Amino acid sequence: MSISAQKKISRCWVKIPATTTNFGPGFDTFGAALSLYNVIVLERTPQQAPPWSDSPAMVVETLKGFEKKTGASLPNFKWSLHSQIPQARGLGSSATVRLGFLAGLNALAGFPLSKEEILECAIELEGHPDNVTPAFLGGFILCGPKKVLRTRIDPKLFFVAFVPQVEISTELSRKILPPEIKLKEAVQNLQRASMIAVCFFEKRYKDLSGLFVDYFHEPYRLASIPYWEELKRAALEAGALGFYLSGSGSTLMAIAYEDPTTVVHALKSESSRRSLSGEVLVLKPDNIGLRLSYR
């Protein structure tokens, strides 16, 4: 069926949550949605405006991905992005853009794609599922090769992020990772990652303490973040359950249960003492994921 023959929606709003991934040893496997959002608005127009060649490369790539997935031409529309999520900080900004355009275009085009197909297309474009899937579904996500497990996160769990002004390219940060690691380190990562998964699915959050140690990626990526150890020590001494590099960075993430006040104060004090440029964000889990509304 052609796009023109399907239901016409004139305008849609897509709200997509930020994500945090890896959780230390859960490299390319764990992800969670957070209460920080990008909103993409798409509105049907009589003619194409502006030319897509003038749009950011990621947007153009996503538009082409949608056309390829549906086998139909794009409707004429204009778009705007209202952003809370900083780019290149390990908080899933690129995943929100891809999902927002795919879900919004799907609505304008009369819903030719199922939810599963939208998610599949976004993962193909992003290259890995751990950011895309929690942004789409909400909650804590465990990504397997062909299967995803999800659980809600207790709202008493807080994610306290130190977001520096330094940007880190995901593509470049993946290139510095080693092709192999030692068997002993791989086993230790597997042990801790397994325990983290159990803690989230069984809501045993206090048992998370001591599990956020990684050998897969953090030792190589943290070379560009010299203040890591100081902020980690401050957060853990203030009662944080864990501290890890969110995604490929540069955001450093602490997890606190019930009351994040002491952890927030510790990170603010330590970053101020060291004259670090950045902000501390107190985020709650998002258990809803992508929201779509339209008229």
Automatic annotation (TrEMBL):
EC number of the protein: 2.7.1.39
Any Pfam family the entry gives: GHMP_kinases_N
Localization of this protein: Cytoplasm
Main localization (coarse): cytoplasm
Function: Catalyzes the ATP-dependent phosphorylation of L-homoserine to L-homoserine phosphate.
PANTHER family cross-referenced by the UniProt entry: HOMOSERINE KINASE, HOMOSERINE/4-DIPHOSPHOCYTIDYL-2-C-METHYL-D-ERYTHRITOL KINASE
Name of this chain's protein: Homoserine kinase
Species for this entry: Candidatus Methylacidiphilum infernorum
UniProt lineage: Bacteria, Pseudomonadati, Verrucomicrobiota, Methylacidiphilae, Methylacidiphilales
Gene of this entry: thrB
